[in-house]
Amino acid sequence: MRCPFCGNVDTQVKDSRPAEDHVAIRRRRFCPACGGRFTTYERVQLRDLVVIKSNGRREDFDRQKLERSIRIALQKRPVEPERMDQMISGIVRRLESLGDTDIPSGTIGEIVMESLARIDTVAYVRFASVYKNFQAADDFDKFVSELRPHAAKEDE
Ligand SMILES: [Zn+2]
Fold first, then answer.
1. CB 88 within 8 A of CB 68
2. pLDDT of 112-133, one tens digit each?
3. Which end of the chain is more exposed for a tag (fewer CB within 10 A), N or C?
4. Burial grade of 151 (CB within 10 A; 0-12, 13-18, 19 or more)
5. Centroid of ligand 1 to alpha carbon of 95 (angstroms)
């Protein structure tokens, strides 16, 4: 696993333990080159999912990107981290069970909004309001950066 800080590919696993009620394995890693520490999660992936953007471009589905956007939407909301992890796992399982490994980006947005609406209305509104612009931009990184200041503003 490549070190996210210095790019060294020779990192060491210091600790492995079950996480999320044995759905995942959490590994603490150490980079001997720069001293950096980071965490990785190993999960069962039933199928390799591909996101189809509205401009037709294909991109491997990235759970961490999904997690980032949901984490920002839920910032400072009274939702337990375990609850959030369960929700994200639930979303991924739904995506995996859609019957097609190619998933339009809009479908992911709809499922995320549905799930957020069920656990926290404020987070749902945050996500949904930014999601409208996101559909035009269709760029997940831009989406996350737009979501961030919006979420921060509501916390003031
Ligand atoms: Zn390093």
1. no
2. 999 999 999 889 888 888 776 6
3. C
4. buried
5. 34
Cβ pair 88, 79 in contact under 8 A: no
d(CA 50, CA 58): 6
Taking the centre of ligand 1 as the mean of its atom positions, its distance from the CA of residue 10, in whole angstroms, is: 9
The sheet that has 37-43: what strands, in order across it?
A: 12-19, 24-30, 37-43
Give 7 Cα–ligand 1 centroid separation in angstroms.
6
Q: Which single residue is written with the structure tokens 């210091």?
A: 14
Distance 37 CA to ligand 1 centre (A): 8
pTM of this structure: 0.62
